[in-house]
Design brief:
Blueprint lengths: L5 H17 L3 H6 L1 H5 L8 E3 L16 H6 L18 H10 L13 E4 L12 H10 L2 H7 L11 E4 L25 E4 L18 H6 L9 E3 L22 E6 L7 H13 L4 E4 L6 H13 L1 E6 L8 H8 L3 E4 L21 E2 L2 H5 L13 H18 L11 H18 L2
Parallel strand pairs: 1-2, 2-3, 3-4, 4-5, 6-7, 6-8, 8-9, 9-10
Helix pairs in contact: 11-13
Length: 423
């Protein structure tokens, strides 16, 4: 019985190993072209580099890889929820691409080339000194030595990923930040986007002013796309909710008021407490989610709107959890609204609520105004989340072509194809 993905992924590895063994025969290679070069039923084929140390520091094929990336399951009651690390983005992508049925073993057939450099950064909290050492060891020159399929025709098809906000790998100069040569044409993924200068006022609350500046530095981080933060929610073959689910809570807030955009958070908490019949506040500080995940799952599944004030940066993991279980996210920062970028698609504006931070702090907007949104509009938003965004804002624990990984790879490949056809 397939319970958590590990058996299926082990079977996939076994099949790939057999194919590689057989394909050493010239006569067999042609007959296996559509098996290991062009798997059937795939619109986008991804080649993944098997990098050696020091650029590779995690083994996506080890028996522990699945649990290291996805984290342990929370409980029977919250079966779709796992204790996934908030720095696990690179590991989740590395694992999913490595074990994908649409992974190609032939570079000539690839639509994209995934470069899993410094994956372990997503599993361990590293200080600046550690990041600098890793970036020094995995220099642009060292990394390029192992990208044997990198050339003028494939550079724009190469995909790099950062486990957290993009500025975290700023010391990796030459390949991630301030890229040189062909690295400048590569696609970059992280759970933050480059914010336009017009949104600078929305970053003033940040304590780390250098990080705030880096969030707007488009020249240092070209071709950057925002992903949702790694959600604790992972869809199985059966989704965690359906669109007809009854949600008894109008709105909820999950989080503390002692970090992030404190001014906004405190005002939200005050208003939420005053609206007890309409709003639920679950106070969780750093590390508190480990003990409270089951409660958070229930609250978000029971809420129509999930209030999402900015964190230490405007990007917040709670957003991915909310969207993945069909709770309409309510933003209080324009930069937060950049979360997920391409994955929202044309339904973005009709799937979330964006409140003006300045107007909210000035008292011109109150969260009780969410009660004025008509039932018909709420139903439309919920239907859009169900049919589009919910599945796309999480990483499934199976080889799902419609989750964050599958959809993003397809969108990126489409963009590359369109760009190469332009004069």
């Amino acid at each position: 019985m397939y319970l958590d993905g590990r058996d299926r992924y082990r079977e996939r590895n076994y099949v790939l190993a057999i194919i590689l063994l057989i394909s050493t025969s010239t006569s067999a290679e042609t007959s296996l072209e559509h098996d290991h070069c062009r798997p059937k039923g795939c619109r986008t084929l991804t080649y993944i580099y098997q990098l050696p140390p020091p650029c590779s520091n995690w083994n996506a094929t080890s028996p522990r890889a699945f649990s290291e990336a996805f984290g342990p399951r929370d409980s029977r009651e919250a079966s779709h929820w796992r204790h996934t690390g908030n720095r696990a983005l690179s590991a989740l992508w590395h694992f999913r691409v490595q074990h994908s049925s649409c992974r190609t073993l032939c570079a000539h057939a690839a639509d994209l080339f995934f470069v899993p450099a410094l994956t372990l950064g997503g599993l361990r909290l590293g200080n600046l000194a550690e990041i600098k050492r890793s970036c020094s060891d995995c220099s642009a020159e060292e990394l390029e030595r192992h990208l044997i399929h990198l050339d003028e025709s494939t550079a724009a098809k190469h995909v790099l990923i950062c486990p957290i906000e993009h500025f975290a790998l700023a010391p990796c100069i030459g390949w991630w930040s301030h890229p040189r040569g062909l690295f400048s044409r590569m696609i970059r993924l992280s759970f933050s986007a480059v914010a336009p200068a017009s949104m600078a006022s929305h970053l003033k609350y940040m304590v780390d002013k250098q990080s705030a500046a880096d969030l707007m530095d488009i020249e240092a981080f070209p071709n950057l796309y925002s992903l949702p933060q790694p959600s604790n929610v992972h869809w199985g073959k059966d989704p965690p909710f359906n669109v007809s689910r009854k949600r008894p809570r109008l709105m909820s807030l999950v989080g503390s008021i002692t970090h992030g955009d404190v001014e906004v958070r405190r005002r939200i908490a005050q208003q939420c407490v005053a609206l007890r019949s309409l709003c639920t506040w679950i106070h969780i500080g750093f590390g508190g989610l480990t003990k409270s995940l089951n409660l958070v799952a229930k609250v978000k599944l029971d809420s129509i709107f999930c209030l999402e004030p900015a964190g230490d940066t405007p990007y917040r993991r709670s957003i991915a959890d909310s969207v993945a279980v069909g709770c309409i996210p309510v933003y209080f920062n324009n930069v937060t609204d950049l979360t997920g970028g391409l994955l929202w698609g044309p339904w973005h504006n009709d799937s979330r609520v964006l409140l003006s931070r300045d107007a909210f702090l000035a008292g011109r907007i109150h969260i009780k105004e969410l009660t004025e949104i008509s039932p018909a509009t709420v139903a439309k938003m919920q239907n859009l989340l169900w049919s589009h965004a919910a599945r796309a804002f999480q990483i499934s624990d199976w080889d799902d072509p419609k989750d964050s990984v599958g959809l993003m790879l397809e969108m990126l490949a489409t963009r590359v194809r369109v760009a190469t056809q332009l004069p």
